[in-house]
Design goal:
heterodimer; A: 184 residues; mainly alpha; Rna Polymerase Sigma Factor, Chain: A; Arc Repressor Mutant, subunit A; 8 helices; elongated; B: alpha+beta; seven-stranded antiparallel beta sheet; three-stranded antiparallel beta sheet; 23% strand
């Protein structure tokens, strides 16, 4: 079904592209929000990505690869939004937690705040790799395809990003332990 | 005593949280934009993603039926008028009322020469070719014809495409300093004449100009130049996709030139070893580029056919 919509859209059918966009839009927003940490910026990135996808659609050779191809465009759009908007550099804004998954009880409020701050310190490229790997559950090679960077670079970014997040969690755990020891 | 928790699980849990519904206003904005925006046509030469391997066969059958009919209706029996160099002042019969692309797609087995307008109706220059050999297919929306589209990219393809693009007078061309690092090597001053465009290609890193600098072989006094470009075979990675082969390049794109004001390249390479033979022409102040694109595996006789098509070109300024 999606492949047929892609083929129709490649022939210039705007209705088909609209239907296609509605099939993939939610997932695109979810990815962009997690990379950019800002709903407004994410919506702008998704809008830009979908328009780019429309204009470039004839270059897509395999209609069955539409979504991975779109995700690559989306990741570029996220990078562009991050570069363009200075407000991205403003102070942390905690994301609303309502969504399909809702808050995870495994995460405490402190965890969430800690990870949010640590995540914002990562480069936008590191965030993209983390989101594609941990949120979408993609393999390293598939992350490379969807972000348009070599596999080795994906591994490197994933390693550094994960290490940074773990380090902030470990630092907090050590601080908590130290506090408890002093109070004991 | 504190219990150490799994940091990877914490990271995954953190990433699962957040918005995941795109609002209707975004879909509406996209729809409004695409209704005003044309799809780009200048990306792939012989690859036509909208056409499966089955569709061209169907088109071929339809075209045989059409050509048997239209050949008599539009052009009649040839009377020797296709033998000499085409006259640029002649108005192509088909240009007065361009036929739908499907109907002017291919040729019958027993071919009679026919003229086909490959430009879109609103292009600054209407370019026509005279087709004298069977098997040429239209590239809808791309402004050209193709033959032996085997679904492969250079250096593997044995197919070929003949493209005809035109731009309004005064259009500036960015002939990139380096096709792989195109986004950071945009010249400060765009080229607006064929001589300036040629100078850009001569200065372009990695670009090997094949038999360049000669005048275009048109008998009707159109000014311009003919040259060939080739993408280095060093980019070839067996079994890799185009994006993987050009992954070291800006946005995984290897691009020869762009248009002033555009954010994306105008002409991208489809694969290592790709050869583009260009006829860069000045047609009444408008720039026309005729581009014969093929790979090192394309048979010589097919290249000759394509060049014959180019040399049959006629131009009409609406």
């Amino acid at each position: 079904m999606q492949e047929e919509l892609v083929r129709q859209a490649q022939r210039g059918d705007a209705e088909a592209f609209d239907a296609l966009a509605r099939q993939v839009g939610d997932r695109c927003l979810a990815i962009a929000v997690r990379i950019l940490r800002d709903v407004d910026l994410a919506e702008d990135a998704v809008q830009a990505a979908l328009i780019t996808a429309w204009t470039e659609l004839r270059a897509l050779r395999d209609p069955s690869r539409f979504e991975p191809w779109l995700h690559r465009i989306l990741s570029r759009a996220c990078f562009a939004e991050a570069r363009r908007r200075t407000r991205w550099y403003e102070g942390p804004r905690i994301l609303p937690v309502e969504g399909a998954y809702g808050p995870d009880e495994y995460l405490t409020v402190d965890d969430r705040d800690l990870l949010e701050r640590a995540f914002r310190r990562l480069t936008i490229q590191q965030r993209a790799v983390l989101v594609f790997h941990h949120y979408l559950g993609l393999s390293i090679s598939e992350v490379a395809t969807r972000t348009g960077i070599p596999v080795g670079t994906v591994k490197s970014r994933l390693h550094h990003a994960t290490r940074a997040l773990r380090a902030s969690l470990d630092a907090d755990a050590r601080a908590s332990a130290h506090t408890q020891e002093r109070m004991a | 005593m504190t219990t150490r928790r799994d940091p990877d699980r914490l990271i995954r849990a953190f990433l699962l949280e957040g918005e995941d519904v795109l609002t209707d206003s975004v879909y509406d904005a996209v729809r409004a934009e695409i209704d005003q925006t044309s799809q780009r046509a200048g990306f792939g030469p012989w690859r036509t993603p909208t056409m499966s391997k089955i569709v061209p066969i169907g088109l071929g059958v339809a075209a045989v039926v059409f050509a048997l009919f239209a050949g008599a209706q539009l052009f009649g029996t040839p009377t020797g008028g296709f033998g000499g160099p085409p006259d640029s002042s002649a108005t192509p019969a088909a240009s007065a009322s361009p036929e739908p692309s499907v109907e002017r797609s291919a040729t019958p087995e027993a071919i009679e020469p026919y003229q086909v307008v490959v430009s879109e109706p609103d292009d600054p220059v209407q370019v026509s070719f005279t087709v004298t050999s069977p098997g040429w297919m239209d590239l809808p929306g791309l402004g050209g014809l193709t033959k032996n589209d085997d679904g492969l990219d250079p250096p593997d393809t044995e197919g070929i495409a003949v493209l005809a693009w035109s731009w309004p007078a005064g259009t500036g061309f960015h002939v990139y300093g380096h096709p792989c690092q195109w986004s950071s090597t945009i010249p400060e001053t765009p080229a607006t004449t064929w001589r300036e465009i040629l100078a850009g290609f001569e200065a372009q890193a990695e670009t090997e100009i094949l038999g360049g600098g000669g005048p275009p072989p048109f008998a009707h006094g159109i000014d311009g130049v003919r040259l060939g470009l080739q993408v280095p075979l060093a980019y070839e990675v067996p079994g890799a996709t185009r994006e993987e082969e050009f992954s070291a390049c800006d946005e995984s794109i290897y691009a020869f030139y762009g248009i002033e004001g555009g954010t994306e390249p105008e002409r991208n390479a489809q694969g290592p070893g790709q050869i583009d033979e260009l006829w860069i022409l000045d047609v009444d102040g408008r720039t026309v580029i005729l581009d014969v694109a093929y790979g090192p595996a394309t048979p010589a006789e097919l290249i000759d056919e394509a060049k014959a098509l180019v040399e049959s070109a006629t131009f009409e300024v609406p």
